[in-house]
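Q: My labmate handed me this sequence with no annotations at all. I'd like to see what the chain might look like in three dimensions before we decide whether it's worth expressing. Could you predict it?
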Amino acid sequence: MAEIKKRYSDEDLAEFKQIIDEKLERARKDYADMMKQLRNDEGNDVADTSPTYKVLEEGSTTQNRAEILVLAERQQKFIKGLEQALIRIQNKTYGIDRMTGELIPKERLRAVPHATLSVESKMNKNH
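A: Here is what I predict for the chain of 127 residues:
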């Protein structure tokens, strides 16, 4: 009887680490860009426009800032998930379904590298 594989090989973990590192670099850059927009580092101020446009633009700016804030919070959560995945790689526990203890398929980890559940476990958890 063949033994069931309980963890990914060091070569597999190195591949996943590279994927995560690339996604993490991009995610951090996107987050920094969002924070720049929130701080209005670009200098797009409405101070020199006419009063009518200023009121309209400020309302639009407030809504836009709220949307960016939501996206930034999601991005921060994504970054944290990727950082935790790197810790699991270091501990050699990466890719193990936290509900079943079985390996999460490589295809899922390549698509969602911070996943801690297989699709099946995720579906069962939500029901």
